[in-house]
Amino acid sequence: xxxxxxxxxxxxxxxxxxxxxxxxxxxxxxxxxxxxxxxxxxxxxxxxxxxxxxxxxxxxxxxxxxxxxxxxxxxxxxxxxxxxxxxxxxxxxxxxxxxxxxxxxxxxxxxxxxxxxxxxxxxxxxxxxxxxxxxxxxxxxx
Length: 142
What we know:
The protein is of the alpha/beta class. It has five helices and five strands.
């Protein structure tokens, strides 16, 4: 199974991916990690697409996506999970990452990007500000 975990920065994607990977025994690939597969970006994308297609046949693989351009890499048949969070929570999580300081340009960028994936087709939606992580994980393991 290939699971695409899609969402903006600090929405809870990595936390969800790690919990899900531990539960179902999956490898996690994040963002542009696929570039390590080859020297050229075009070849790396091709190899990664083949890897994802092969994973549909039995391997559990989670691909964490924060950029719209990476959505095209998910193969037909992949399960798409949209991860959301309240803007205030995203700002606080980002502030923690930046050692307690959230510069105004970063805050403005977060505000502009908030909701950027809301219209992305998906089978599941997880709101890390409201939903129970363990209950959501159970939907994949029951």
